[in-house]
Structure formats: C-alpha cells, structure tokens
Amino acid sequence: MTGFLVLALYVGAFFGSYFVLSRLLQGAFARKGFNKLKTVTFGDESAVVANRIASVLSVVTVFWLWVAFTNSVIPLPKLPGPYQGQMEFTYTATLPDGSTDDATVTMLVYPEDIQQTVDAEGNPGRAPEAVEVEPGEGFAKNDSDTVARYGFKVLNVWKNDDVSKKDGSVVTHINGAPVSPGDYVEVPEGTIGITDKGTPTFAPAVGLRMARLYLPAPEVVLERFVRLNKEGYQNFTLWEHTRYSLQRVLLGFLFGALIGIPIGYAMGLTNWSRGWFDPIVEFMRPVPPLALIPLMIIWFGIGELSKVILLFLAALWIMIIAARAGVSGVAITKVHAAYSLGASKWQILTKVIVPNSLPEIFTGARVAMGVCWGTVVAAELVAAEVGLGKMIVVASKFQLTDIVIVGIILIGVIGFMIDVGMRKLENWLVPWKGRV
Amino acid sequence: MSGLLIDDISMRFDLPNGGHVQALKNVTLDIKSGELMSVLGPSGCGKTTLLNIVAGFLAPTQGRVMLGDHEVKGPDAERGMVFQQGALFEWMNVRDNVRFGPDMKGVSRSQSREKVEHLLEVVGLQDFKEKAIYELSGGMQQRVALARCLANDPDVILMDEPLGALDALTREKMQSLVLDLWKETGKTIILITHSVEEALLLGERLLVMAPRPGRVHKEYRLPFADLGVGNDLREVKKHPDYNSTREEILEMIWNMEEEIMGRAEEQA
Fold first, then answer.
1. Which residues of B fall within a CB distance of 8 Å from A342?
2. How many CB atoms lie within 10 A of CB A310?
3. For testing the chain B interface, which of A332, A333, A341, A362 should be mutated: the one with the most B CBs within 10 Å?
4. Global pTM?
5. Range of B205's domain?
6. Superfamily name with CATH number, domain A219-429
7. Per-residue confidence in pLDDT tens, chain B, 268 aa
8. Residue B117 falls inside a structural domain
9. For residue B132, what is the nearest residue in chain A, using CA coordinates?
C-alpha cells in the first residue's frame, strides 16, 4: 500500500512540478541557442538538452520522499506519523454476580529507537517508566503501562485488581462500548483489542512513516556517517573500508588491463594468438564474475589475493575484447599510409594501432571499472574482513539499517566518480573521439 | 629519379565458392620518371588493384613491378600514397602528420623542420599547423595528405581518388594544387579517379581501363596538364580538343557499363 503511495507521490511530483514550473519559469523552459529556431524538435535527439531544474528537483524529490516517510526532524511536509505520548482508555470489568466496575488504563507510547539516541550529556536513551496513577475506587483498579511506537502490548489489567481473571473478572466494555473476545476498538491513538482469551491489548497507531529499523531518517544516516568516520565499524574506519574496496578494484583492473590489452592486440595482429585465445575468451566472457567467487574463495581464501584475482578476471576479458576491437577498428588506409611513409611494424603498432585503438580501450576500461566496482562489493558481501560490502552485510545482520544506507550511498557516489573521472581522462587523451 | 615498369601483370582472386575473378590481365605499362598518368575506368576494372600492386600492398599472381633497377616487393617510402579520406592520423596535429615520414626514418626534427614548414606553406596550411585533424575541412585534410606524402620525398606518388570526397569548388582548387606540385617537384604520379574531367585535366597520360578482365583499353597523351600548370583550369576546358576527347571517353565508358549490364542479363 505504502509502495503505491510512494509511486503516486513520485509521479505526481514529476508531472506536477513540470506543469507548475513550466508556467512560472517560462524562460528556463524555452529552447536555447540554435534549437530555438528548430521547428522540429520532437524526434530530433540533438535538440534534447537535460533540463537542470528537473535534475535538481529530481534529487530534491527523492530526498523529500525519504524525509516524508520517516520520523525525521527535518521540517518538510511529512506523512502522518506513529502515535507518541500518553493516552488513556477505560475498561469495564464484570463479575459473575453481575456487578461491574470501571477503571482507566494509562498508556505511555515512547519512540522505538530511544535506546539508539543520546541525550545532551551523551547518555544513551532509556525506555521510560510507566506513569504513576491513582488506584481508584472499586474492585477494578486503574492501570499504567508503556509501549514503544510501532509496538504491541498485552495488558494484564487484573494484576492490581481485587478480583483476578481466574476468579471470574471479565472485561466486557472498552470506553463504554461492549466487546467480546476477538474484537477491536479503534481510537485515534491506536487499536485496543481483546484477545481470544479475553485480555485487552494495545497497539499504538503506526501512521504511514517507517520505523528507524526499516528506513532511518536522513539526519540519522548523516550522524552515522560522521560516527563511522570517527569510530569506524568492525575495527575499521569508513575510510579504511572504502580504501580497501577501491584498492582491490584498482589493482584488479590494472592487472586486467596490463595483461588484457597486449593479449587483445596480439589477437588483432597475429593468427596464432587469435586462434589460441579465441576459445578461452569466448568461453569466459559470458561467465559472470560473481559465479567465480566461490572458486576464488576455495582457492585463495577470503583475503586480498582472492579479491584481486577475481577483479583481475572480471576486467581481463573486457579489456582483451576492447583491445581486439580497437585493432579491428583501425582503418586499413591508415596502416597502408603509414607503411608507405616508411614505418616499421613496431612503428605501425606504437604510432598507429595503439593511438587509434584508444577510444575502444577507454570504452572497455569504463565498462571494466563499472563491472569491477560492482563485483568487489558483491565479493565482499560473500566473504571479507574489510571493505564497503563487508560493512554493509555485517550491519544488516545487526539491523543497523543506517550503516547499510551509508554504504549504499558511498558505493553509488564512488561508482559515479569513477565514471566521471574516466570520461574526463578520455576527453583529455582521445579528443578526436566521435569527431572523425 | 627512375621510371616505373609494370611488367605483364595479372591478378586473379579466388572466390570462396570455387570461382575466381580476373581483376587484371596482362597489364603492361612503362611510366617514365616525372610523368603524370591518370587512370580511368568503370567500377570493377581493377584500377585500385593495380594501384595496390604498385604500392606493394598486394603481390600480383603473375608479372612484376620494377621501380628503376629493383623489383617492388612491399610498401616502401619510395612510393608515397594519397588516399581518398580517413588516412590521416587524428591523434596528431597537422605538422606531426606532415613530418610522420621523416620521423619514421629517424630524421631529426631540426633537420626535417625546414622542409616540413616549406611544404605546409606550399599547400597553404602554415596557419593551421598546430590544429587537430578533425578541426580541418575535407579540402584542408587532403592538403595535409599531399604534404605528408611529399615530406617523405618519394620517387612515385600514387593517388587513389584523392579528391573524390570533395565538393566541386574545392576540387577544382585542389586540382590546380596537384598540377603545381607535380610541376614543382617533378614527381612521377599515378592518379586514379572516377571523374573524366579530372583525368583529362590532370593526366599527361590518360589510361582508360576496361573490366572483366581488368585491362588497358585505350591510352591518350594529352596536352591539358601542361596547359593547366599555373593557369586557370576553366580556361583549359575551353581548349578545342577538350570537349571532343571528353565525349569520346564518356562514350567509351558508357558502352563498357552497357556491356557489363548486358552480360549480367544474359547470365540471369
């Protein structure tokens, strides 16, 4: 249900912000430059430019949805939250002789994550005590209890009464309404029920927001991020987890490129190499690196070596194929021209084939880095001592969802930065790409 | 400088289905040093194959090519190539492209500088020498290709439709440039073209080839190339013989195409 609400809000934000902003900010929505003069733009891909307002709003929307569905302190519009505070309801107990008595139950609903918070002095939060209440008149006495948000409590309302349940005291009414076992009474603060055995229960209203266990609020994740940097997790700081993951990726990719590119060139240049490596490359290419993880662990353990070798294998085939494609992409006229200008075979390789294959090599390198980054996290999920994947999987076992989210955001940001870096490097080294 | 002798060359390609194509049959040509010969013919007449054999990229199934006193065995700096397009090195700027040949030979840059700068000036690219190849227009790129070839000081220059991808106006200017360079350097040039006009204007000798099997059909000696050196090529086209020769050759090629079509129909 909540999922449909998220979808509806997201779709609504997409269309709603477009209709509102395109009326308000017509200047920002007008086509610019030469595109202004084009009358045919629908279907002309070159006339499509990313609207940066939309990009910003897209990120803001995701952030807002995150806030709206959590018990965040950030002052943004939020969905109805879980009930928290002090409420009362009355029950009526009836004895076998027909005599009745009313008593009130005071329920204190406290935050479910109170033990994960710290107060101003740095002491961890504790679940509160039940409030003191007057026992009141009659054989049924007033009760007081506590329950956490999103929680549920079975209330032994007879424990301080003069007549126990065993002696025939039955709860017959809640807030004056008659009830029998199995019934529920809805109140604004939650649901009061009667179990099949006749005992009252109380479940505070949950609203539409998610408990910290399922989705921690942004500030909780940020706080965790700061603490992970200072204190670390599982004996390693966040930076060390990140560095180990990055180091594995870079080492694996580097070896993959160092071995793969020459093999790819050889496959593109000599019959023997092509025949020799073709079967193994064609066989290994469709094997997902993840399928090799168990074998790597069996052979090389769970240490650095098995990770680096796995990533080496992940990058190797991609780089071989990229280099081979790079050689086949060299126009034969360029090779002929170079030979006619007196180049030797070695000069053909270094001055013509290598520079001419750089665009393909870079495309391959970008793919390989992406695959390696995905593979390292997966490999660490399976078995590792340190690394972002290991951090996530251990945190999930202890239900520390905030650490899981910190890890996911970090993995995404680093993956994005790797790709941006590779593209920058490509533009710098291969300025002619796509312009010939 | 030495002449080029194409000695009874035949070229047969075997097809995967067991048949074969006779791309060239018993072609013999004696090209004197400093001659500019244009080669014309319908597609499939083997003119590019002939050029590839002279360049040394293909070995003929019969016959041999002699340059001066030695036989052509493979590509060499003594025979420079100018291709239609896409043979420049995009990862180098204009000047590095032009000095590629001297660099490959190990000539120091200080030694090659003067010649490279001179050639850039001759082709009119002195202001573009730092530019990347993809920043140049098609005509400018072909100027670079010409300069790159000349920087190596080859004995023979082989041109495979060098102006084929250019627009008509640029093409005319480049034709003048080719003529001027030919006169200035005195190189032996073999120029393959699809354009009858170009073959007439540039070819001191004009070779019309016929297809199936590829062979020399007719040879002309023309005055237009000499007239065109340093002159407006449009004036040359007013020469009394120009139009009649053009019509004659067009007719010839037209008939060849008809014949090919007819033969194809017969087979079907």
1. 76-77, 101, 104-105, 152
2. 25
3. A341
4. 0.82
5. 1-76+188-238
6. MetI-like (1.10.3720.10)
7. 578 888 888 888 888 888 888 888 888 888 888 888 999 888 778 888 888 999 999 888 988 888 888 888 888 888 999 988 878 898 998 889 989 988 888 888 888 888 888 888 888 888 888 888 888 888 888 889 988 988 888 889 999 888 888 888 888 888 888 888 888 888 889 999 888 888 888 888 888 888 878 888 888 887 777 777 777 777 777 778 878 888 888 888 888 878 777 776 666 5
8. no
9. A432
